[in-house]
Amino acid sequence: MSLFRIFGASSAAERDEEKAAENARDSKEKLVSAENKHQPPRFDGVAVLEAAGVAAEPREKVERTLELLKALPAETPAPVRKNIVEASFKAFDISIKAIVEAASAHVTAFDNYVAAGHKQLDALRKESEQRIAELEAEIYKIQKRLELATSDQASLDDATLAATDRVRPVLGFFADAHGKVANDSKNSHPPSIIIDDSLTKTG
Q1: pLDDT digits over 4-25, tens only?
Q2: What is the rounded CA–CA span in Å between residue 103 and residue 63?
Q3: For residue 72, what are the contacts with CB-CB under 8 A and spacing of at least 6?
Q4: 39: region left, alpha or beta (phi > 0 left; psi from -120 to 50 alpha)
Q5: Which residues, other chains included, contact 98 with Cβ-Cβ below 8 Å and sequence gap of 6+?
Q6: Can you tell me the distance from the alpha carbon of 174 to that of 47, in angstroms, rounded to the nearest whole number?
Q7: Does the model's pTM come out above 0.70?
Q8: pLDDT by residue (tens digit) across 107-118?
Q9: Residue 47 and residue 91: Cα distance in Å, rounded?
Q10: Contact (CB, 8 A) for 48 and 113
């Protein structure tokens, strides 16, 4: 921490640096908070079917068929199970064709729902990848600017050090007499001349 910060005063560069660090911390905290609050979406099959235009009646037919299939003993052979279901449908005057069409509508609606989700995901992925590429390019520019500034400063440091080393022998040469020269310089003015007033009078 610099003395400026200790005594409450800081340069514009320091204030900008502190502000940038504060903004970075805030952004990170907000991101972590958003991640913690995020909840995976819940699948609502009825809402998907309604959005796809599948009416309540075909939905009910499919549900009843599923309940009937679930009630059949698992060990019952598939042909026998099929005969049982078909016989039940005929007894209640339920069209097997209608059941198949309703089930097909369910599958189509769900397939389209998944396809729409992936379409949105693909669009987001392309947008995200483009944005990431832009940020990476910006990061590259910043890094190159920093590298150039560091190289330039190093060059100036070397040139300044060389200039300092060039002058330093003068101090070394006069090192012993330096104090004396400095003291003598205080009395370097000549003494004042006292002039007799009679010498300046005429006549």
Answers
A1: 444 444 556 666 767 777 777 7
A2: 9
A3: 81, 84, 85
A4: beta
A5: 58, 61
A6: 94
A7: no
A8: 999 999 999 999
A9: 32
A10: yes
